[in-house]
Amino acid sequence: MIEDRMLSHDFDEEALGFDAPPERPRVLSAGEKIGYGLVGLGAFFLIASLTTGFLLGSWGGFLLSFGPLSIGAIVAWSSWYGARSAGIKNDGNFFRGSQNRGVVGWILGVGITGFYVVLYFYDSWQAKGLPALLEGPKTLVNPLSELITGQSADRWFLYGTLYTFAVVVFGVRMIWKYRHVRYQVVRTVSVMFFQLGFAFLIPGLLKLFHQPEFYFSYFWPLKPEYLWPGSLHGLMSHPGGLGVFMITWGAILSLVGTPLLTYFFGKRWYCSWVCGCGGLAETLGDPWRQQSVKSRWAWVVERWLIHAVLVLVVVTTAVLWINSATEGRVLGSASFGFAKFYGLWIGAVFSGVVGVGFYPLLGSRVWCRFGCPQAAILGIFQRFFSRFRITTNGSQCMSCGNCSTYCEMGIDVRAYAQRGENIVRASCVGCGVCSAVCPRGVLKLENGGTHGDRYEGAENPISVFLHDVATPPRQGHNT
Q1: CA 317 to CA 322: how far, in whole Å?
Q2: Could you report the per-residue pLDDT of 214-245, keeping only the tens digit for each?
Q3: Cis previous bond, 229, omega within 30
């Protein structure tokens, strides 16, 4: 029988022996020791190359740096996850400073942000006589640049190398962590493939063969300059017809691919399977997905900001075309101010400095959630005209909150699950992690037979659109 004193909580748990068991220090396995040793070896050669010039600019320096770093990380992760049963383990995420805005998290955030500031403003950086921080790293990756592009490495090749390196190596970590969910494995392999092939190797090889550099996995409005007059005229005038093919490719993806694929599969076909921004967020950014802000005010800011960026890129594109058609008689050189403003504040500061630098502080999808105009367009189609939905089985929900905690887009998934409602949010990127972390199988990603059966009123999308525009968002509702 339970004592009255215990029922009234009138007792000292620690004095009665109910204190937490002593924490046992984790012992590294042999595989982890080998992996971390290789990481340390790679870091040593990297620092030695950059500080002393040891093998800098040679294949030896490149392979001795990137080889042990990547192989060591993969060996360590394989040993750590391989020794545990399949299934997502999120133990201790909120007790690690690196994953919960602690000192280490802030150091990482400032460090990544600082790198992006130097990268995007390097010309101004050097003009002011500041240290040439990127010259050593550029020289380090120069052998790879000469092999792929036939040219010496510049800062953008350096960035592309580091970006691809992060997606591929941390993608292996993602596969190990989520290996029990086939959907997660396949989509991770997909973003690794598109980043390595379509966003790194193919653009580089095009430069090698003296063709226009083109990223086939990006298109307007995420890559807005692909629809600007200067870029189109340059591609159309390029001999051989490849430029025309590139224009046609971009037009088909923008005008046909976006509405058609989103209708059948939701925005996940791009945001979680193809896009390089999403690829980095899902691989390198996975440890910080729980940092996404879930408050109502964040949702309000999200809706206004992401659609404001979409309006800005549309206006900028229209202004440039009007100016081109009138041969500059309408706005003159002022039209280029629109393009410069967008390129600087949206393309550089928002998507790069803030979008990636704030991973450890605001989660891995800051740009995708608050700024990406491509995500805004895909979200509009998904919300009103897509067959995609996340179905819920509310009777099985035990309100653990895992789904909401690990939603990188800040959606209160649990609120939908508790009411047994389908989740049809414009911001949802269909990553499926909410379903993967659910211990009871409450959530399921599905493509229905029509868009009209997802929620009440979905058969009249225009009316729903007008209602959503006029109604403030409420967490747990499909607005």
Answers
A1: 9
A2: 999 999 999 999 999 988 988 888 888 899 99
A3: no
